[in-house]
Each structure stands twice: as C-alpha cells, then as structure tokens.
Amino acid sequence: MIVEILCIGTELLSGITLNTNAYWLCSEITNVGGVVRRVTVVRDDLSEISSAARESLARKPNILITTGGLGATYDDITFEGLAAALGKKVVLDSRAVEMLKKSYARHKLHYELTESRLKMASIPEGSTPIQNPVGSAPAVMEQADGISIFCLPGVPSEMKTIFKEHILQRIKKSVGKFVAEELNYNTRGLTEAIIAPVLIEIVKSHPKNMIYLKTHPRGYYRKKTPQIKIQMISRGDNEKEVKNRLAAISKVIEKEIVKRGGIIC
Amino acid sequence: MIVEILCIGTELLSGITLNTNAYWLCSEITNVGGVVRRVTVVRDDLSEISSAARESLARKPNILITTGGLGATYDDITFEGLAAALGKKVVLDSRAVEMLKKSYARHKLHYELTESRLKMASIPEGSTPIQNPVGSAPAVMEQADGISIFCLPGVPSEMKTIFKEHILQRIKKSVGKFVAEELNYNTRGLTEAIIAPVLIEIVKSHPKNMIYLKTHPRGYYRKKTPQIKIQMISRGDNEKEVKNRLAAISKVIEKEIVKRGGIIC
After folding, report:
1. What is the mean pLDDT of chain B?
2. Alpha-carbon gap, residue B106 to B110, rounded angstroms
3. Which residues contact B12 (CB under 8 A, 6 or more apart)?
4. What ipTM was estimated for this complex?
5. Per the CB < 8 Å rule, is A14 touching B36?
6. Is B229 exposed, middle or buried (0-12, 13-18, 19+ CB in 10 A)?
7. A116 touches chain B (CB under 8 A)
8. Which residues of A touch B13 (CB under 8 A)?
9. What is the pTM of this model?
C-alpha cells in the first residue's frame, strides 16, 4: 500500500505554516502498515499543481492524497490543477452544491451561493464529492488508472476528519493485519559511526520493511561525550513474531553498545 | 532566485520526525526575497533520492538544497543518490577526510577512520566539501548546469549553521535589496467566501510577488460566527513603496470588512 502526499499552499513554502498535515498523515498511514513514498509541497500555482500531480500519478502509488486549496479564495485552485493533470475539465457538481448548503445549514448560516462559494463545488469532471463534516469546502475522490485520488482540505481539523472517515479504513483493509513494536535506547559514549556496522548487519539479515533501525544524534554530554538515540521498530502481521524479533534485535544491540564503550542512560 | 528543497529521510515519511528543517529553510529564504518553489521529501532509498534530484535539476532552480542522509549509517546515502542523478561516481575526498579529523579534534575525540567514518568523506566526484562546524559529517557544494547544489546534514543545528554560513549570503546577494512588511487582521463575522472577491481584485491589480494576501479560517466564535485571519504582506526593493502599498491595501480591506458585516477583533 504505497501512498503519495501532495501538499498545496504557498504558505507552506514561505515559512508561514509548518506542514503538520503531512506529518500527521505520514504517522496515521505508517501506523496501520501503509508506506508513504513521497511528500511533495507546491505553491498555489496551476502549472506547479498539475505537473506535480501528473508526476505523482506517473509513479503509480495506490493512493494519492492532496491537501489544501479547496476553499473559496482566488488561490484555491487544487481542483483546476488536478483536472489539468487528468486532462479533464472542472464542472459545477450538483451533489457538491447540496453538500455546501448542508454545511452552511449546520452553522445556521443563510448564505447566497455566490460565485466564490460555487467555486468550491466545481470539481474535476467524473469525480465524487465528499461532505466536509467540519468546514464547508467539499473534498473529492477520483479514480485514475487504478490510483485512488483524494483531495482533502488544508484546515487540519477538516483534513483529519475526512481522512479518518474515508481513507484510513481503505488503507487498513488493503494492508490487512499489521503490528508494530518500538523500543528506543538513549546512549552515551557512542557515535553513529561506532554503532553503524552493527546496524547494517542486522538490517541485511532481515527482509525489508520488517525492521527499521535508526540512530539519532543527540549532541554531546558535557560538551565531550557523544550521545545518540537508537530507535528500533519491528513490523509484521504476527504479533508474537514482531515482539520476538524486536527482543532479539534489542539484545544484540544492547550487548554491542556496552562492548563498544557506550552506556544506556 | 528560485530554490528547491529535497529532504531525505525515512523518518520524515513515517511520522517520526516533523519536518521543521523545510519550514525553517522556507522562512529564511522567503525573508530575504528568495522563492522556494517546491519541497520534495523522499525516503532513504537510492532510486528515490536520485530520481527526485534528477527531476528537481530538470526544473532548473537557481539553487537545490538537500537535507539529511550525510551520516555514517547504512541509510545515509544522499551522496550516492546525488552522484547517480548527475551521472557521477562517489569518491573519497582528502579535503573531506581532513574536515572529519578537524571535527573529531574539536571534541577531543581520537577516532580511527573506520569504513563507516570514511563513508562521510566519500562525496560526488568534482564536488566541494564544506566543513561541518557543529557535527562531523561534511556538507557538499556542487555546480551542475548553472544550478548550485548544496547537501546539508539533517541535524537542525548543523543544517542551520552551514546554511547561514554558505547559502544565505548567496541568496541575499542575488536578490539584492528586499523589504517585506506584514499586517494581519483577525476578523469575526466573515467567511473566506465573503471577502474572496475583494482579495482577487487587489491581487489582480498588483504585479505578482509584490503582495501576498491570504485568508486563514479560524473556526467559529460561540459555534456560530465564522472567524478568519486576513494576512497581508507587501514586498519589494523600496521600503517606502512597500509600506505605502501595505497601507493602501489594508485600508481597502478594512473598509470592506465592515461593509460586508465583519468586525476586526
């Protein structure tokens, strides 16, 4: 289950907004056994959006999720960008209009459907609108060449709710049973280079994706003694196997930490 | 001055690490008048790194900055990926070896230059190593087809120091004089759709990149009254013009907020 994420928003590329959406999505997808292969972030620019979407679709992920650019303002052009990438037009969708009305009614807002508002209901031809249960702009689902495309809003609370309702189950179902166990050692006296040969041996002797070993430098203790965090994750579809694998790996690493002059704090 | 950023690290795509590096770089570059056109995030995977680098170079930014993957562990393969993208080999560089030695000496560490450590000094043929003044792994500078490529470490403190010393001045010099002024209105009673027609008129009547207008939805006050933040940024090379432009725009927007039934909080 390979997922790509395309985040759309000039604010993400000008240091205005920290991209917590991508982070949250990566975490949710990884936790159920999906693999996020790439995150791309582009500005609110039609040719950037359409070329990034086209490139992503050419890499054939199972799912492409876009975030942002679904609103009523001049720079919300995700649907136009996606439509261009698919060689389609954007059309006013009556179901999306009903969803907009429903959203306004929820907040007891009696809004006229002005041009700016109807823009939110103008979606790529043949795509399916999804009710936004938090804000107003509908999301969209689209199929292209066996790839499921979801356009989600950029507002985190809206994005998260729609992801959980419409995408998470799909990924879970496709991945099947999935278990992950994690263990971390905070060490002192070791550098990444000292423990590197140990990690590579362990990684080589396991199938890809079943284990994840990573060292994170954590500066120096009293300006002299190097500190690293060693992160160990075991993954699979059998809980006992996953746990046993983690136990075996951590035992080897524990021994090597001491042997190489380090301590676990 | 167009910049692309390529962030390398499986931890960024599995919800382990929030990509604050990209955020910080975008902010620094924008603040001096550069434009970050795209951020791409890939896993520690050779073909992903090389294809993402190749795609970025084909888009001809002025600068390509990569972050991460310069360390001593098995999954640090940025130099191999970049070399592959450039059709080059990775070679042990004697200057990079000296830089490593200098880094160790700084912390009074008497390390042997093992295979794992020498990996950090094995850089794309023809590229220039850059001393890492915080950690040990050298950074790299490379020229290709008029594009300046910088490979920076993933550890934020190391990345930031090298960026400030070696890239920031280059961007500043290329952009020349640059001023930006920002003003924000927190409003109540307006939605993005209500103010959208005002914003598009203002944006249309100014040269691109001189102003940035953006609305940020901020939920509902007492579950009923919509709240948005209106962000206005004026940019240019003349301080007086930039300020006058912002004053003129904010005056129009202020008037329209009230006219359309909103208040500034």
Report:
1. 95
2. 10
3. A26, A39, B19, B41, B68
4. 0.94
5. yes
6. middle
7. yes
8. 26, 30, 36-39
9. 0.94
**Interface contact flag, A37 B48, Cβ < 8 Å:** yes
Mean pLDDT to the nearest integer, A136-157: 96
Sorted by sequence, the CB contacts under 8 Å of residue A201 that are 6+ apart come out as none
Q: What is the pLDDT of residues B189-215, one digit of tens each?
A: 999 999 999 999 999 999 888 999 999
Enter the DSSP assignment of B32: T
d(CA B115, CA B154): 21
DSSP-assigned letters across all residues of A58-90: HT--SEEEEES--SSSTT--HHHHHHHHHT--E
Look up residue A47 and give its amino acid: S
Residue A206 and residue A189 in contact, taking contact as beta carbons nearer than 8 Å = no
Spell out, as residue ranges, where chain B has pLDDT lower than 50: none
DSSP string computed for B8-21 = E-HHHHTTSS--HH
Contacts of B66 (CB under 8 A, 6+ apart): B5, B6, B7, B8, B53, B78, B82, B149, B150, B151, B152
B36-69 pLDDT, tens digit per residue, is 999 999 999 999 999 999 999 999 999 999 999 9
The predicted pLDDT at position B104 comes to: 87
Amino acid A3: pLDDT: 98
Report the run of H or E that residue A48 belongs to, with start and end.
helix A46-58
Query: Residue B227's pLDDT is what?
Result: 94
Q: How far is CA A141 from CA A56, A93, A125, in A?
A: 16, 13, 11
Q: Which of residues 143-162 of A touch B (CB under 8 A)?
A: 155, 157
What domains are defined for chain B? 2-175 (3.40.980.10), 179-264 (3.30.300.330)
Looking at chain A, the whole-number percentage of residues with pLDDT higher than 90 is 88
